[in-house]
Specification:
Number of helices: 12
Mean pLDDT: 88
Order of helices and strands: HHHHHHHHEHHEEHEEEHE
Shape: elongated
Distance between the termini: 72 Å
Oligomer: single chain
Organism: Pelomonas caseinilytica
EC number: 2.7.7.65
Pfam families: GGDEF (PF00990)
Bound molecules: guanosine-5'-triphosphate
Strand order of the largest sheet: 2-3-1-6-7
Number of strands: 7
CATH topology of the largest domain: Rhopdopsin 7-helix transmembrane proteins
Number of domains: 2
Domain GGDEF: 254-390
InterPro entries: Diguanylate_Cyclase, GGDEF_dom, Nucleotide_cyclase, Rev_trsase/Diguanyl_cyclase
Largest sheet: 5 strands, mixed
Structural class: alpha+beta
C-alpha cells in the first residue's frame, strides 16, 4: 500500500467521522428520526476521531496520554455505537451487558495504565471492542433476522463481524507477536493497511446503521399505511388487499373463510363511559382476538366497531373449523371484561361466518354473505356465531 500514506488516510477518516457525526445530529435535531440512537452515533463518531489520533501529531504527548486517549476513546466509541444499534433495533433487552463490557474494559485500561504496562491497556481495550462487536452481531441477527432476507441480514451484520474479527486478530497479535504492542507508543505510526482496514470497518458500520434507520422509517410508513392507528388491526384498505390476494389463491385450491365481527351495544359504552372507554374497548377486543388467531390469519377493522377476520383453511370447504375459531373468539371476549378506571365493563360481539365464492376477485360476495350472517346473529340476540347454513362448499359469485 505504498500509494497510501497513513496521515492522509487518518485525515480522510477524521473528515468522514466528522461528517457522519454532523449528519446523525441533523437527523436527531431536525427530522427527529430515532433521536437517541442518532445522538449516540454522533458521539461515537466524534470519539473515534479523538481515539484514532493522527500519527505524528501525538508523538510529542506524554506516554501515558498516548496510551490512554486511543484506548479509552476506541472503547467508548464502540460502546456508544453498540448502544445506538440496540436503540435503533428498538430492542427490549436492557443495556446492562453493554455497560458491563464497557465498564470492565475501562477498568482494565485504567489498571493497565496504572501498572505502567504498554500491553495491558491495549489488550483490555481490544478485548472489550471484540466483545461489544459480538454483542452487536447477536443484536442484529435477533432484531432483523426473521424480518429481512438472510442476504440483507448478512450484509448488515458483516461490518460488526469484521470489527470482531479485527479485534480478535489484534488481541492475538498483541499476545503472540513480540513488540506489536509498541506500535504508535514510540511515535511509530501504524501500517497503512491497518489504518485503511479500520476506516473501512468504521464506514461499513455507519452504512449498516443508516440502512437500519431507513428500514425503520419504511416499516413505520408501512405500519401507518396498512394498520388502523387505534387498534393495530389491518386498515380497511390493507384488509381488502389481503382479501383480493386470498381470492387469487382460492383459484389454486387454497381456501379461506371470512368472519365478520361487530361489537354488541357498543354505542352504550360510548354514551355511558365516554369515547375514551369506547376506544379502550376496541383495543381490548383486538388484543384478545389477535392473541387467539394464528400468524397467518388476518384481522382488519372495516370501520367503527366492525371487524373482519380472514382465516386460511387447510381444506377449502372447512366451514366447521372457521366456526370453531369464531366461537373461540366470541367466548374469549365474553369471558374477559374490560377494566376501565376501576369499573368492569362486560363486552360481547356477534359473528357471521361464510366461505368465499370462486368467481369473485374482490371477495365482495363472501363479505356480503358473512355480513348477512352477522346481522342474523344480531337479530337472534347477539353474542353468538352464525354461519351460512345453506352454503356447502365453494360457489360462483
Ligand atoms: N369510541 C369509539 N367509538 C366509535 C368509533 N367508531 C365508531 N364508534 C361508535 O360506535 C357506535 C356504533 O353504534 P351502533 O352502530 O349503533 O352499534 P351498537 O351500539 O354496537 O349496536 P349493535 O351493533 O346493534 O349491537 C357509534 O356510536 C359510533 O360513534 C371509535 O373509533 N371509537
Amino acid at each position: 500500500m505504498d500509494f497510501l500514506d497513513v496521515p492522509t488516510v487518518l485525515k480522510v477518516s477524521a473528515v468522514f467521522n466528522l461528517m457522519a457525526a454532523l449528519a446523525w445530529l441533523m437527523l436527531a435535531q431536525t427530522f427527529r428520526v430515532a433521536p437517541r440512537a442518532a445522538r449516540l452515533m454522533a458521539a461515537g463518531h466524534l470519539l473515534r476521531i479523538a481515539s484514532q489520533g493522527c500519527g505524528e501529531c501525538t508523538a510529542g504527548w506524554p506516554l501515558l496520554l498516548r496510551q490512554a486517549v486511543p484506548a479509552f476513546g476506541l472503547l467508548a466509541s464502540v460502546t456508544l455505537l453498540t448502544l445506538a444499534l440496540r436503540h435503533m433495533l428498538r430492542s427490549r433487552q436492557r443495556v446492562h451487558d453493554i455497560a458491563w463490557v464497557g465498564g470492565l474494559g475501562a477498568l482494565g485500561i485504567a489498571a493497565g495504565l496504572a501498572s505502567g504496562s504498554g500491553l495491558a491497556p491495549q489488550l483490555a481495550c481490544t478485548a472489550g471492542v471484540a466483545l461489544l462487536s459480538l454483542l452487536a452481531v447477536r443484536d442484529l441477527v435477533r432484531g432483523i433476522g426473521g424480518q429481512l432476507s438472510p442476504v440483507v441480514t448478512a450484509c448488515m451484520t458483516l461490518p460488526f463481524a469484521a470489527l470482531a474479527a479485527l479485534s480478535v486478530g489484534h488481541v492475538a497479535a498483541l499476545l503472540l507477536l513480540p513488540g506489536w504492542g509498541d506500535h504508535g507508543l514510540d511515535g511509530e505510526p501504524p501500517t497503512p493497511a491497518r489504518v485503511v482496514l479500520w476506516f473501512v470497518v468504521t464506514a461499513g458500520i455507519t452504512l449498516s446503521l443508516i440502512a437500519l434507520l431507513i428500514w425503520r422509517v419504511i416499516s413505520r410508513i408501512q405500519h401507518l399505511t396498512y394498520r388502523d392507528p387505534l387498534t393495530g388491526a389491518l386498515s380497511r384498505r390493507a384488509f381488502e388487499q389481503a382479501l383480493a390476494e386470498a381470492q387469487a389463491q382460492l383459484q389454486r385450491g387454497h381456501g379461506f373463510a371470512l368472519v365478520m365481527i361487530d361489537v354488541d351495544h357498543f354505542k352504550r359504552i360510548n354514551d355511558e363511559h365516554g369515547h375514551a372507554a369506547g376506544d379502550a374497548a376496541l383495543q381490548h377486543c383486538v388484543r384478545l382476538w389477535q392473541a387467539g388467531l394464528r400468524a397467518v390469519d388476518r384481522l382488519g377493522r372495516l370501520g367503527g366497531e366492525e371487524f373482519c377476520a380472514l382465516l386460511p383453511l387447510a381444506a377449502p370447504q372447512d366451514l366447521p373449523t372457521a366456526m370453531a375459531v369464531a366461537e373461540r373468539l366470541r367466548a374469549t371476549l365474553a369471558a374477559q371484561p374490560l377494566h376501565w378506571k376501576g369499573v368492569e365493563l362486560p363486552l360481547s360481539a356477534s359473528f357471521g361466518v361464510a366461505l368465499p365464492a370462486t368467481d369473485d376477485p374482490r371477495g365482495e360476495s363472501g363479505l356480503a354473505r358473512a355480513d348477512a350472517e352477522l346481522y342474523r346473529a344480531k337479530a337472534e340476540g347477539r353474542n353468538r356465531v352464525c354461519a351460512a347454513p345453506e352454503f356447502h362448499g365453494l360457489a360462483a359469485a
